[in-house]
Structure formats: structure tokens, C-alpha cells
Model the fold of this input.
Amino acid sequence: MSNKTLFESCTLGALTLANRIVMAPLTRNRAGPGLVPGELAAEYYAQRASAGLLIAEATQVSPQAQGYQDTPGVYTDAQIAGWRKVTDAVHDKGGRIFLQLWHVGRISHVDLQPGGAAPVAPSAIRAPTKTFVNNRFVDVSEPRALALDEIPGVIADFRKAAANAISAGFDGVEIHGANGYLLDQFAKDGANKRTDAYGGSVENRARLMLEVAEAVADEIGPERTGIRLSPVSPANGISCSDPQAQFDYIVDKLDALGIVYIHVVEGATGGPRDVAPFDFEGLRRRFSNIYIANNGYDRDLAETRLAAGHADLFAFGRPFISNPDLVERLKTAAPLAEMDTATLYGGGAAGYTDYPALSPGD
Ligand code: 8OZ
Done:
């Protein structure tokens, strides 16, 4: 047991965070023309800058990486300039901010893909889920399997996006390796039926995620590289027959790479923590750097797990939407405001930048 508290500063690579509370990446579908984050995004993130670390929403590394309407990118100069306004606004308030880098793989639709092409995936297996496009929910499209010689291009897109994020002023990046998107699709045998070097064994299925992590760490430094994992989450119709073996192996390799954090969705994303048996404490022990725990945390659970040494930082998602001053509210045990689900995805300031802080000026 230790005497650490959630409200003390903490080191993350070369950064000092003001506290151990992290704002999880949250998809809000409010990017403007050209998939550029706008002025409202700068205001929204700045309002939440009292978190020890903000992880900005999942952001496409390329046009092919998009799976939902109006999600931002980080592959054009205009997008980089838009993100620069966000990072400046957060840094002006003393905050720290990473960007989550995303390729959705098969969770996409032909109407979002360049040239109306099929989305790409490890194997040509359609996910049993929907996406949001043309202002409505529709089944995702049938994907095509990535050819072996296309894989270096995907890795290069992550590398370039990481460099772009740093030129936009981010303190680091989080690779989205979770929730049934491309890297998780490769890692899990429900979506990956390949017979080449990227499918079959635990090692082969981990290969793309690890090659992306290696490229990003090489590009911007391991101390600025984190990754999100969701070993047992069924999000977006994904399944895995051997999550413990698969993610123990992945985390051993990530540890050897020396990246700064793993951000682990414990259980079903946004759902039950006990969806399937998994030894998250064992996973944590395999990783020597920072462990960010996520999923269904409140102050009590976070404090218990911090004291027991099971995690270093705690990511809160939905509570940050309706409580821009979540850190202060947790600290003072103030009531939390409820989120309006109707304004979660898309729209403007309503349900985005108009949730008030308890104390004026925050
Ligand atoms: C909600 C809606 C769309 C995308 C994730 C990026 O699950 C997402 C996402 C969440 O990681």
C-alpha cells in the first residue's frame, strides 16, 4: 500500500502532470470542413485543462483511416494548424495534451472512403456493427483484406501523423490499439484470419500493432508515445480466443520498446468491468512505465487501485463531457452533472462547450 493521492503531481516521461486524472479520448464528431478541428474544439479542451493529462479524440492518420462522419484528421496542413490552436489553448491554461492516432480499419463505410473504395481490414470479414455517416447510423461496409505490400504504407501513415501531432504542439501521442479498430482487428483472431506474417500466431497477430508502436516511438521518442489497449472488450464486434496470451505478449514487447504508457480499458468499453476473465493486475506488472486505468472508475475505486499499486493514472471519459472541472469536483466530492446523450455526437456548442464549471472562471 502507498500514500499516493489522485490529486498530487506525477511524472509522465519528461512531463510533470498536475494530478493523476486523465481525460480519456472522446469522439464528438464536430470537425469542420476538411476535417479540421475548429475554434470550439480549442475552447472545449481548454475548459478541461485542469486534468493532469488530456487525450484528444481519435484522429485519422490518413483519409482511409476514417470511419465516422466529421471526425478530425492530422494529415493535412490545415488540420495541423487547427490542432495548433487546441494545443496552444490547453498549454496557456497549464494543461498537457496527447493526441490519439486512429485507423478504423473495417469500421467504416464506402461513403467515407477515398474513391468510394471498400474499407481495409486484416481479412474480408464485415463487422457486425454500425457507423454514423450521412447523418444516420448504417451497417459498416464489407471490407477488403489489406495486401501484404500495403502494410508498410499504414505504418508510415502512423509515423507521419505522429510527427504532425508534434508539429501541432501535442506533448505526445496515444496509438489507438483498442475497441475493435484496425490494430485491435489484427491482434484478435475473430477479425484476423490471415495466413501470412500478420496472422495466425500470437506473435504474428501482434506484429502490426508493435510495428506501428516502434515506428511512432522512433519518430517522436518513446517518452512521448503511449498506446490504448482493450484486451477483452467486444467493442465494434471484435472477439479474441486468447486475450491473456495475446496481450501479455504485446505488453512485454511494448515494455521493451520503453514507451511511456499503456492505457488499458478494463472490461467492455463503457460497459461492465467483468465482461470476461482477465488478469489486469498481471498485465500491469509486466509494464515498468506508466499504467493508465480506464473504465467505470469513480474516485473510490481509483484511490483503492492507486493505493494497491495497480495503476498510476486514471482516465475518465463520459464524466468529463458534462463536468469540465471534473478534477475539482472529484477533489471536493461535489455532485457530478449528467451528460445529455442527444448532443454527444455532432452539432455545435450545445452539449460541447456549454457545460458550466462549479466555480466561475474555471
Ligand atoms: C464512440 C463513437 C465513435 C468512435 C472508440 C473512437 O470507441 C471510438 C468511438 C467511440 O474508441
Notes: The two ends are 34 Å apart (CA to CA). The chain has a mean pLDDT of 97.
